[in-house]
Amino acid sequence: MKKVILSCLLLISATASLALAESVSVPGTNISFTPPAGFTALTQEELDLKFPNKNGPKFACGNERRTTTVAYDVRAVAITADALRDGLEPIGESMARVIPGAVWVGKRIERLAGVDWAYFELTSNALDADIHNIILMGPWEGKLVVFNFNATKADFELLEAALRASIKSITIDKA
Q1: What is the CATH number of domain 2-172?
Q2: How far apart are the first and last CA of the chain?
Q3: Pairwise CA distance, residues 85 & 102, whole Å
Q4: What is the value of pTM for the model shown?
C-alpha cells in the first residue's frame, strides 16, 4: 500500500471545449483515452520542467499554455481492485497530509472500462495558481495505472466538461 500511495503522491506532486481529439494509447498497455480537443503531447523538455521529480509521470498531454494537463503512467506496483478499494481512505489521508491546501471534492471507487478505479478529486494550492486535480488509479495486469487530470481552477471552470468526457473515454481493449 505504501508503494501505491508513493506512486500516486509522486504523480500529484509533480503536477502541482467539448469536442474531443484523437485517442491516445498509454504506451505498453491496451489502455487508451481521448484527451480534450487541442491537447498535444508534452515534449521531454516540457515533462522535465513541469515534473522535475525523477519519479514523475512519463507521459502527459496538455493545452497550448500547459496550464491543464493529463498525466498518465504505469507503475510497477503490484495492485488489485480490492487493494485500491481497501486503500481508498488511507491513500486519501496521505494525499491530504502532503498536498498544500488540499480540499476534497470527492473520494470513491468509479467503474470505467469495466474496471474499478480509485477516484480522488481535490483542489489545492500551488506556487503560482490554485489547482483542481482528478486522480484515477486502477489495476492493469498486476500493475498500477495512474491518470492525473490537472488544471488551474480558472481552466477547470472552462474545461470541466471536456476533462470529464476524457475520463469517461478511458478504454481497455480486450486482447
Answers
A1: 3.40.1000.10
A2: 29
A3: 21
A4: 0.85
